[in-house]
Structure to design on (861 residues):
């Protein structure tokens, strides 16, 4: 098991827990995503790929499909995006999707990432990230694609687009999402330095909207959903669409080129060699 | 008398007062707008349509004409936009302009709203909103179109684009103005939830620039005008134009389509039925 | 010696000191710019045109050339932009480049300003402004083009784009840089009023990132450079490029027209007469 950002995660991530959300009654289930449709009409979508919810093609596809299905599910009025893995929201992209990739597999992987993001960012239902664990890179992207972010207070958890520290570059639509959340200046420095923020610092720069005790995260996320659900629906949907439209349009205009660039980047010999060394180092470390 | 947002306004709004600004010497007068050209070369434009300054076609046209006239009036160096109605800045758009509208009347109404906004937002003279009362929806738009906002401290007054709560959608140029004032992230959540902010909260997110005691509002608005009037005029004018240009350009590019969309929206049977029920409920309430 | 903004500078500026940075070992030298290539692989570029580092064609050209050379210098990993003149970062554009200018000289001057900005703003190496003195107008532009700004605490120093107060208009790319740094709303008012901020106020609105004692400025700027230098380089470079790309693209699209506008503006009889009066007043004052 290898994943981008592994060395940045707290040790707890590597332990496989029973799942903080183990008591949930699962209404539907996929391999790596669990969906609970609750009586309050809120669906809780939980990433469920121990040990660190590394985002591989199957997990991303399941997420994209889940968000698309819930979009059309009249019984669901709001979505909370959470994790079943204790101490981890998501560690980001799975490096094994990049190592020894073919042009075809690299493109398939990247498209699934794009689809996941778009199905969440443009979701017409209220979406809230319940961030009860570390949330670097792709984990931060998922959180920023929601309407609201509640994070657990912990000195072990951090959140941020830390791609540069991992020698990679966040694609333009990660950056656009980040800028939309924390503004141009904060995003610029955080992206360049690959900054990971403590929950308290993330709150200060507006990267998360609330920081609460770990056992309060789901309750607060639920409260935010209920607040959105009180708003007349058609107006809320059209307003959300309008206010995010320029970012979705930029994404649509650039998405094909973005796939080309990713495939060209990842298939370079030098990048493959670097990934190989990285994986060797991880293996050596874990012995 | 009916208006969007009526149920959100403090009770004081429904009382017809003598006018806080009743002592002003009026230099020119229209039906729903009073203009005082003061000796300090500041023109005070006051909305004057009791009980709540609901923005109907005549009021909006008069405002647009007033701002355009003042633009060309060499004796006027700055404009304060205020209200003659105690406790109310403006309650927003007049719903009677939408109920049983014809295609022609709907278009005329919406164009007058566009003209009012453009004549204020692109006004080359310094403009300051003296917000001495509730300022939801269209009231907030007027305030945000000015260069500076001074609001009276009061636990009865709120300000914000609360359109979603009224089942309507703020047009794109309302949203652009809001984003330019408080930033993408704050605007996004406030627009989706239709948030109304207390003066103190509005100050925190930058929706207003100053909160002072009610009897200090005009004095502080005047001070801000005088500060702008000290700046070499040609440079100030060109700078204001340049820094707002991208928003004016987006508006110009979309304004015709915006009228089409409004007319198509408001003339739908379902919308007319909803407006009818809303007006019935208001009547029942006021008995 | 005349310069825009002279009357706004603290008295200390007019004294010619020994140079706070006089102990630097100069690795290369030009007429108005000194470059120290330090052992830590950080190049310190210091403006060196007493009494106020007024930005004339030679100084701007030397700066542009310096940044371009350092871009290609493999021994240099980061750049600090500082001043050799005590109490002054830079007083901004040299008014003598505008007075009695020809079309050719005006264009040459303005292009050198554009080149200087672009070579710094788009520099792929980490750049930090060590602001140990007054930094109005063009001085503020240089600071904002860097990745990070450290300013000395002092009640004598201010920073800001104060062009309107000098009867001129900041070009669109000054404004874009300002908006990217402090956001649309803060930039709008600061540009219109030509605001100059104390170090403390500049910190509050995000115009500078750190305010420290004067003798700590270089140390803190160095620390920021070292932080950037730890980031994998290719990823850092591509990220910086990507996140600033929209501003560079707007600049490229408008730069020719910007030169035309400047030349047309400055060669007007009325502007020349104004500049003449301004220079006379400065002369009278200095007697």
């Amino acid at each position: 098991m290898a994943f981008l950002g592994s060395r940045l995660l707290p040790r707890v991530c590597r332990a496989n827990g029973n799942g903080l959300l183990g008591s949930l009654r699962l209404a539907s289930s996929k391999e790596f995503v669990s969906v609970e449709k609750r009586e309050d009409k809120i669906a809780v979508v939980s990433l469920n790929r121990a040990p660190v919810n590394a985002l591989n093609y199957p997990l991303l596809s399941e997420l994209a499909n889940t968000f698309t299905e819930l979009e059309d599910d009249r019984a669901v009025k709001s979505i909370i995006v959470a994790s079943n893995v204790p101490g981890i929201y998501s560690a980001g992209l799975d490096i094994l999707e990049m190592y020894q990739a073919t042009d075809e597999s690299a493109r398939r992987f990247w498209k699934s990432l794009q689809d996941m993001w778009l199905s969440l960012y443009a979701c017409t239902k209220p979406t809230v990230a319940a961030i009860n664990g570390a949330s670097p890179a792709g984990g931060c992207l998922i959180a920023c694609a929601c309407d609201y972010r509640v994070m657990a207070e912990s000195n072990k958890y951090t959140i941020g687009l830390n791609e540069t520290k991992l020698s990679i570059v966040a694609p333009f639509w990660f950056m656009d999402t980040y800028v939309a959340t924390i503004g141009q200046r904060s995003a610029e420095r955080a992206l360049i330095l690959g900054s990971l923020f403590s929950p308290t610092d993330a709150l200060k720069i507006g990267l998360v909207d609330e920081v609460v005790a770990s056992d309060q995260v789901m309750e607060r996320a639920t409260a935010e959903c209920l607040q959105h659900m009180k708003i007349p629906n058609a107006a809320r949907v059209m307003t959300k669409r309008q206010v995010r439209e320029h970012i979705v349009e930029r994404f649509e205009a650039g998405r094909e080129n973005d796939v080309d660039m990713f495939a060209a980047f990842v298939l370079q010999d030098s990048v493959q060699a670097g990934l190989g060394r990285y994986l060797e180092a991880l293996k050596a470390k874990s012995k």
In short: DSSP finds nine helices and ten strands in chain B. Chain B touches chain C at residues 126, 147-148, 179-183, 206, 209, 227-228, 231-232, 234-236, 238-240, 242-244 (CB under 8 Å). Strands of chain B lie at 28-29, 33-37, 42-47, 78-83, 87-88, 127-131, 133-136, 148-152, 159-160, 210-212.
